[in-house]
Amino acid sequence: MHYKAGTYFRTGPYAECRGYPTPTPGWSGASCRFYNDYGNLWYYSSDWRAWVYSGNVTFPIDGEPAPTNSC
Known about the structure:
71 residues, mainly beta, three-stranded antiparallel β-sheet
């Protein structure tokens, strides 16, 4: 997935979870997806070992679509 500059990588799939912003845009692998209790879609980044809100990323990466398997 491609993420925007300032995207937060979080400890859990909620905006309330602790996180850290990325200073620049970049690429990361996404291993699975998760819909939280609010119906928001999040992806788990195995590279960063953190969660990213779907509104801050785009797919595909190297022709690979977004993961469809649930976390």
